[in-house]
């Protein structure tokens, strides 16, 4: 006998599940969107929640994240019950904090059996405080993705001395290690090529440490026999990073490969870079659309205006108007950025007083708060 909350915007689905659960002897609470689901969860402390994904206002994934953000509800079983049944949907649900995932093709009696199994499961003994994943991305190359990922990780390492990681996800010839003055060893690919399961322990020998303490997994500079990072490797990578680091930055390639999509979906924040030119604004607008179609909520996407070119750029107002979204940060043009790259010493160290370095430091503080 348990109190079960069903959240779904389709009254027919609610009726069907409610009937089956009541017949099995359970008490049922219902909500038609994630927002009212949240307030019912807080007021009534149900024993288990069944949540749909596609709902107005707060969707099922966001519901899971917000519930898990509250200590009281760290262990409440949440079963995501969705019409979407691609492997990525299951992965997204689990990443968001769901206990389990079932597609709506499952019938009511199987659903009830599943719910009862979840109710019998003991809650996990020790909770690990998990770190955040920050994806840095731009659909147009050359907008400063790697420069930002590198300088942000240095800023975090310098400001808090907290464990911070930088993962170069470029399939070939990424620039993160280079910009930090490290010899790129293609370590993520080496870890994959070893054929061992990706977890904190197997990644350990592949980290390179920068003088600031930033831990780096670089991209290969020769074609890797293991090929690209497969999309299936992203989830174990993310789990391991969350357990090891306070913040992990993913320097993503400017294409929407399945691997990039998996990383974007798993990230707590997506820093979407846009440069003040029409081509970049178009790419950013398209990226916003695609991210939204992938189920990534607006709050998780932070557009960042970076100015890798000199005069003649669009104003930040023009960029905001075109994207119809506020900017999380604006990084001005900094001539020292090119010199920093060529000296293999990030701007954060070579010109910490520059306006660009200051904006990056401010953004790092926002990400840590
Ligand atoms: N704010 C900036 N001011 C001046 N140059 C910049 C700025 N941001 C990036 N750059 C320069 O732009 C070029 C592309 O940057 P990079 O970080 O490699 O972009 P991406 O990773 O998006 O391809 C580099 O030469 C970098 O030094
Ligand atoms: Mg790059």
Concise structural overview:
This protein has 369 residues and is α/β, with parallel strands linked by helices. Helices cover 43% and strands 16% of the residues.
Features:
369 residues, alpha/beta, Rossmann fold, 2 domains, five-stranded parallel sheet, 16 helices, 43% helix, globular, binds adenosine-5'-diphosphate
Strand content: 15-25%
Number of strands: 13
CATH homologous superfamily title of the largest domain: P-loop containing nucleotide triphosphate hydrolases
Secondary-structure element pattern, one letter each: EHEHEHEHEHEHEHHHEEHEHEHEHEHHH
Number of discrete helical segments: 16
Look at the structure and give the mean pLDDT: 92
Q: Globular, elongated, flat, extended or rod-shaped: what is the shape? A: globular
Q: Number of domains in the coordinates?
A: 2
Structural write-up:
- The protein is α/β, with parallel strands linked by helices.
- The chain has two domains: 3-120, 3-Layer(aba) Sandwich (Rossmann fold), CATH 3.40.50; 132-368, Rossmann fold, CATH 3.40.50.
- It is globular, with a radius of gyration of 22 Å.
- It is built from 16 helices and 13 strands.
- Strands 8-9-7-10-6-11-12-13 form an eight-stranded mixed sheet, sandwiched between helices. The protein has a five-stranded parallel sheet with strand order 2-1-3-4-5, sandwiched between helices.
- The mean pLDDT is 92.
- The chain has helices spanning 11-23, 34-44, 60-68, 87-96, 108-120, 145-160, 176-179, 187-193, 200-203, 234-244, 258-266, 278-293, 316-323, 336-343, 347-350, 355-368, and strands at 3-7, 27-31, 48-51, 78-82, 100-103, 132-137, 164-168, 208-209, 215-217, 247-251, 269-274, 301-306, 329-331.
- Magnesium ion is lined by residues 145-146, 175.
